[in-house]
Amino acid sequence: MDGNVLVIGAGVAGMKASLLLAGAGRRVYLLEKTSIIGGRIIRCEDVYPGMECATCMLSPMQQEVLRNDLVDVITLGEILSLEGSRGDFRAKVRRRASSVDPSACIGCAECWNACPVETGNTFEENLATRKAISIPCAGALPNVPWIDRNICARWRNGEDCTLCADACVFDAVDFTMEDETMELEISHVVVATGFDTPPGDIFEKFRWGSSAGVFTAPEFERYFSSNGPTSGELLTKDGREPGSAAIVVHPLGTGGNPAIATMYSLKFIHYLEKKLPEVKPVVFLDASYSPDPVADRHHGAWEHVNARVVRYTSAPSVSDDDGTLHIECGTADGPFECRAELLVLGTVMRPPDDTVELAEILGIPTNGDGFFEKADPLSSTALTPVPGILLAGCAGGPVDVPNAVIGASAAAGRVLADSGESA
Ligand code: SF4
Ligand code: SF4
Predict the structure, then answer these.
(1) C-alpha 124 to ligand 1 mean position (Å)
(2) In the chain, N or C terminus with fewer CB closer than 10 Å?
């Protein structure tokens, strides 16, 4: 049982599993729905808990994946069907047309500078715009743009626009490119589809969307990032430098365990310490939250943070007093209130929107939180109830980066163990 392997998702877990399997001589098809590899971590400046530079950690891995002859990276890809069983799966996958020849493109940016069509950039949490032909951010890998035909004037309006092609002296823009469907014979599938975060509008009651000082966690990641919309300058959305800050951790809209959100708020304290060292943030944590073993591992970290921790017994309410946020809550010691010019909303992880659809295609179940179900929910094993389909990273539920890498190694190890090899 030493066949090819399909890895779905090119985040840190998918890349790690792919490299381990390729290192053992397996051909890997690494399927990624976006135009770039790296997953959500490349949106971050630093990686929690070690606060390593995300680019320094991921860039060598991304380069290795793109250079590895045994890893076929299929960006703008999706799985259409899966048939068969362990050792003898057949997957049908589609690569959407990028309209740019990657072998001719040098990533010079002339095409998107020439493009007149602009839309919100979801990679930047819509805090910046992108063109109809674009890469998501500076330093994206592969550094090759693609044309979003949903908004491009040629496909959307039937216009004879050729501005991007005219600007490209390398003739890399190809309007005739078509979607490609491939039939893959594989022995195993590794699902490494990662996580998403709740949409900002569920935080409206905390004045997200109406106050310039309120950020969701992913927005704050991009504002802090040196390749983000403010080149890493921490400002409110109306351009003010905040002199005070607060972090509210609330498991809104999920019903899930806020352990990861609580840990995640530690990262924001470190971020604030780096960029606004004179600011001591107030951190609002749910007093009823019982740390689980994951959070326990980091329990000591709270003792030395440069922050005031407030454990609320009634959820905080936020009002806006002419640009300054007024935050109130109940605590075991009575009411508490403070003012802040910057508020970060700690968030939980949720499964990506297409998880249910993918579960149906793969024939594997999801659990109560909407992530893919593990064969043994109490174990960290990569197994699903379907032999030959394995989970890595956050596919089976929220984990931090070190555990995502461990899960990827476990999944690769399981694939190789099925044929008596070792990773
Ligand atoms: S498609 Fe052409 S113009 Fe655009 S980045 Fe590539 S080489 Fe540059
Ligand atoms: S054809 Fe025109 S609208 Fe479409 S991507 Fe190129 S420049 Fe933009």
Answers:
(1) 21
(2) N
Q: What is the pLDDT of residue 255?
A: 47
**Buried/exposed code over 367-384 (b: 16+ C-beta within 10 A; e: otherwise):** eebbbbbbbeeeeebbbb
For CA atoms 390, 393, 399, 405, the dihedral sign is positive
Range of the domain at 87: 5-96+179-195+350-417
318 in ligand 1 pocket by Cβ < 6 Å?
A: no
Distances (CA, A) of 414 to 21, 31, 256, 285, 286: 10, 20, 29, 39, 38
Give 103-140 pLDDT, tens digit per residue. Answer: 999 999 999 999 999 999 999 889 899 999 999 988 89
Are 260 and 347 a contacting pair, CB within 8 Å?
no
User: Quick check: CB of 147 below 6 Å from ligand 1?
Assistant: no
How many Å lie between the centroid of ligand 2 and the Cα of residue 95? 20
What would the pLDDT profile of 333-369 be if each residue is shown by its tens digit?
999 999 999 999 987 788 999 999 999 999 999 998 8
Asked whether 115 lines ligand 2 (CB < 6 A), one says yes
CA distance 35 to 130: 14
Going from the Cα of 146 to the center of ligand 1, the distance in angstroms, rounded, reads 10
Number of domains in the chain: 3
Q: Are residues 160 and 31 in the same domain?
A: no
Which helix (H) or strand (E) segment holds residue 89: the answer is strand 88-95
Q: Whose CA is nearest to atom 7 of ligand 1?
A: 105
**167: Cβ below 6 Å to ligand 1?**
yes
Whether residue 22 is contained in a domain is answered as yes
